[in-house]
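Example 3.2
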Amino acid sequence: MCRWWAEIEVLIVTSATTANVEANNTAINYIKGAARGCRNPANHKSRIFLRSAAPMQHEHSSQQTIPREP
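Structure, written as C-alpha cells:
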C-alpha cells in the first residue's frame, strides 16, 4: 500500500483511470488477431484506424441536432 500510495492518491483526487486506454488496446489486439497472418504493417494501421473511427463518427453524428423548419 505504501509503495503505490502516490498513484492511489492521484486516483482519489482526479478519478482518472486507464480504462479507455485498456479498452483501446483490447480492440487493437482483436483487430490484429482477426488479420490472420497478414504481414503488411500499413494494412494493420489502416484497419485499426478505420475500426476506431467508425464508432467515433457514429457518436458525433448522434449528438448533432437537425434544425426544425417553422
